[in-house]
Write a structure and sequence with these properties.
This protein is mainly alpha-helical and 169 residues long. It is built from 6 helices and 2 strands. A two-stranded antiparallel sheet has the order 1-2.
């Protein structure tokens, strides 16, 4: 499986910084949050690898931590009005958000918009907000909206964790 080229679906190009990646053996053993949606891409190519959506208790906090790093970078770029430089980190942030959104619900983030009716845990007005962010990734309002979506998902995830622990005997 090592050094296999994995292509991303064309529909992801609006919110993914990658069109393809070279799959490394280490990705099968240790979770890597650096490249959003790479596990979905591998899964869609039939690779037997980690399925982070099946271990969201572990992976979602790691992705949220990665988002906080991206958020600092975006804050710096927006503060300095470097709008040309925000597109790549915004795409990464959007990809991370999609992972958190779907993984909290136990699904891979494969088909945005098509599976939204399956999502029990999601922010209010998700479709409109996410559509705006994806359509205008280098607008300051998109950045603010992405921050808010992550904040809401983090709260929803925390509530989900508390409920899960309360149900466990």
């Amino acid at each position: 499986m090592a050094n296999q080229k994995i292509s991303f679906p064309e529909e992801w190009f609006k919110f993914s910084i990658h069109k393809e990646i070279i799959w490394q053996d280490e990705y099968d053993q240790m979770f890597n949050p650096q490249t959003p949606l790479m596990y979905e891409a591998a899964y869609s190519h039939g690779l037997k690898t980690l399925m982070p959506w099946e271990m969201a208790d572990y992976t979602v906090p790691v992705v949220i931590k990665e988002w906080k790093t991206v958020k600092v970078e975006l804050h710096e770029k927006f503060s300095k009005r470097k709008l040309i430089e925000v597109e790549q980190p915004m795409k990464k942030g959007i990809g991370l958000f999609i992972e958190v959104l779907y993984w909290c619900n136990g699904y891979p983030g494969l088909s945005l918009n098509k599976d939204d009716d399956k999502l029990r845990i999601k922010p209010v007005n998700l479709q409109e907000r996410l559509h705006f962010i994806i359509s205008y990734p280098n607008k300051y309002h998109s950045y603010i909206q992405l921050i808010e979506l992550f904040s809401e998902m983090e709260k929803l995830f925390s509530v989900q964790q508390v409920i899960k622990k309360a149900k466990t005997p």
